[in-house]
Design a protein that fits this description.
- The protein is mainly α and 103 residues long.
- It has a domain of 65 residues: Orthogonal Bundle (434 Repressor (Amino-terminal Domain)), CATH 1.10.260.
- Helix content is 60%, strand content 0%.
- It has 5 helices and no strands.
- The chain starts with 9 loop residues before the first helix and ends in a 13-residue tail after the last helix.
């Protein structure tokens, strides 16, 4: 016996759940999450560009693999010190400290 195809496929249900969750997040929180994910992606791309695997990079900078994974999760709250450290280690710009105001 064939099952009748309905609109309530798992993918449709997941999309509805995701839409419902996104409706509960403020614009500011969504922007913050988006920026954290962009930062994590920039760091991950820079680590990849070094030619090292994540665990090799962790060993090189005397960190645990779990800490690197947290950094790349997109949910980590970085300290300024860690961001400066990563900039120096990876040779990238993570912080823009130039004044955005024109004199």
């Amino acid at each position: 016996m064939k099952r009748k195809k309905t609109d309530s496929t798992p993918q449709t249900s997941n999309n509805l759940i995701l839409e419902s969750l996104l409706d509960t997040i403020s614009k500011e929180e969504l922007e913050k999450l988006e920026n954290k994910l962009k930062l994590a992606l920039k760091i991950a791309t820079a680590i990849e560009a070094t030619g090292l695997k994540k665990h090799e990079f962790a060993k090189k900078i005397n960190k645990n693999n779990s800490e690197i994974n947290k950094w790349l999760s997109g949910t980590h709250n970085f300290t300024v010190e860690t961001l400066f450290f990563l900039q120096n280690e990876l040779g990238i710009k993570l912080l823009d400290l130039e004044s955005s105001q024109k004199a």
